[in-house]
User: What shape does this take?
Amino acid sequence: MQNIVLISIGTMKHNVAGFLSLSLPEILHAQCRVIEEEIALDPFYSTDRKQYHSTEILRQLLPFAAGDEHHILGIMDKDIYIPILTFVFGEAQLGGKCALMSGHRLHQEFYGLPEDESLYMHRCEKEAVHELGHTLGLKHCQNFECVMRYSNSVADIDIKRNVFCPSCSEVLGIPSLW
Ligand SMILES: [Zn+2]
Ligand SMILES: [Zn+2]
Assistant: This one.
C-alpha cells in the first residue's frame, strides 16, 4: 500500500485532517501525513447551484500526486456537486491517485440537529476510507456494512462500518479488520 497525503482545502470547522492522519494508517495499512497547500475554490463555485464543482477541484489535486508513490485526499467543508447529481459526499479517480471529500453534509447541523463532533469525525473517516478505496481500485460493495457500500445519505453512512469487508480487504491484499 502506498502513502496517503491529506490536504485541507479552505476552512474546516473541526480538524478532520488531524483526526484522519491518526486513524487511516491502521485501516488502510499506509502511512499518512498532512500537508498545507492553498487551493483556491472561488473559480469552481457555481452561483446557480451555490455549490462547488467537485471534479474541477479534484483536478487541482493532480499536481500533488505527480511522480510520487502516494494517494492524495483533499478534505473540504463546502458543499460539492457533479453536474448529474444534487450533491456528492466525495469523488475519486477509480484506480487513480486523487480523491476529494466534503464534510458539509456530514454535520448534524446540516440537518437542523445539534452538532455532534464525534459523529461528524466518524462519518468523515468512513467517507475518507471509501474514496481512498476507490483510488485503490475498489468499486462499490454490496455488503451493507462494508465501507465501500454506496451511500446516498448520512443514514447509509451511519449503517456502514469504517473498515473494508473481508472480500474488499482481500482485493487490496491487506489483513481484514472486520
Ligand atoms: Zn463510492
Ligand atoms: Zn466490501
